[in-house]
Design a protein that fits this description.
single chain; alpha/beta; elongated
Length: about 350
């Protein structure tokens, strides 16, 4: 399946998540609602799109992976796909796609189970990685300088893929290679902690790749480096999809959004690895400022008190009403016993 600029491509979806090939264009503002619907969660009331059929109430995908690639001005990604893959045109109606809405929906429904949420982006110097399990990613480099050291090792993707004309010593090439290496590092960590994959809470990955745009801007769209970067990106995404499918036993939806340079961005509230480390001791309730939980007998006591008050109020009203309309000469035994009787001779 070929993906060009302004496209929303579903690389893989389980058999119980069905899309319609004849669906209209997808608005960029509807992407968070679409992902929430795939999870079986309630989207916003304004969400209207016929491309996703009604999801199963009994089966939900365990994970959703959203990959956003910037700099795809007319470029084509030849992505492998299953028979359930689909592609839709993406209309830009907002400047930022807010994936935080998806995170909020998952947290509100499964927050007490601590779902695995990974939100990745990188700039020229620092990698931002947000997760509910930051302790898992302590070994992941938090800066591109440290990532360059990882790329120099024998186990990095530089030895697993043909880089062609790309060079890790060049800053523009380095950003793309570092982003792909970081995604690979995340996959390796999750693979070693399979208890997070087999639990009952859904997982969400939002992965942003901006390094391709840096390569195109620096070398040009028709350059050899841009062609090699596109080839590397295509091969990496195909292998990444297969890894996620194997990791989640096919119960995962993998989507790719391709956007031209300086187009719609993916917005979220990201925090660096170092910032997340300061909050390791915080509970979910403390981080989200939730109200304390009620006792399990709260509903029982509440109903007892409520209905007792209602019964007493109705009884009091009935008694007062009957006394107000009482006929003293007929109904009251007090008046009958104390009334004077005339003697007859």
């Amino acid at each position: 399946m070929a993906a060009s600029s302004h496209e929303f491509t579903v690389l893989h979806a389980p058999s119980f998540v069905k899309f319609s090939k004849s669906a209209p264009h997808l608005q960029s503002s509807s992407v968070p609602d679409l992902i929430s619907s795939i999870y079986g969660l309630s989207p916003s009331k304004s969400f209207r799109w016929s491309g996703l059929q009604v999801p199963s109430l009994f089966r939900r995908p365990k994970a959703n992976v959203l990959v956003t690639i910037l700099g795809m001005d007319g470029k084509i990604l030849n992505l492998q796909h299953s028979k359930d893959a689909f592609q839709f045109n993406l209309d830009k109606d907002i400047p930022v796609i807010d994936t935080q809405r998806v995170v909020n929906n998952i947290e509100s429904e499964f927050g007490d189970k601590t779902p695995l949420i990974v939100d990745l982006s990188a700039d020229r110097t620092v990698v931002d990685l947000r997760s509910h399990h930051p302790e898992l990613f302590h070994s992941v480099p938090a800066t591109l300088t440290k990532m360059s050291e990882v790329l120099s090792e024998g186990s990095s993707l530089t030895n697993s893929y043909n880089l062609g004309s790309l060079n890790i010593t060049q800053d523009k090439d380095m950003l793309l290679l570092a982003e792909l290496q970081l995604i690979q590092e995340i996959l390796d960590v999750v693979s070693l902690n399979k208890h997070l994959v087999t639990d009952s809470s859904p997982d969400f990955y939002s992965l942003s790749i901006s390094g391709f745009q840096a390569v195109v801007d620096h070398y040009g769209e028709q350059s050899e480096q841009a062609r090699d970067a596109l080839k590397l990106l295509t091969e990496f995404l195909n292998k990444m999809t297969e890894t996620f499918r194997r990791l989640y036993s096919d119960s995962v939806v993998v989507e790719v959004i391709t956007l031209p340079g300086s187009s719609v961005n993916i917005g979220r509230k990201s925090r660096s690895l170092m910032a997340e480390a300061d909050n390791l001791g915080e509970t979910f309730a403390q981080r989200t400022n939730l109200a304390p939980e009620y006792d399990e007998n709260y509903s029982v006591f509440f109903n007892i008190i409520l209905w007792m008050m209602i019964v007493l109020a109705l009884a009091t009203y009935a008694i007062c009403y009957s006394m107000w309309h009482m006929d003293p000469g007929r109904d009251s035994i007090i008046y009958r016993m104390t009334s004077q009787r005339m003697k007859k001779e």
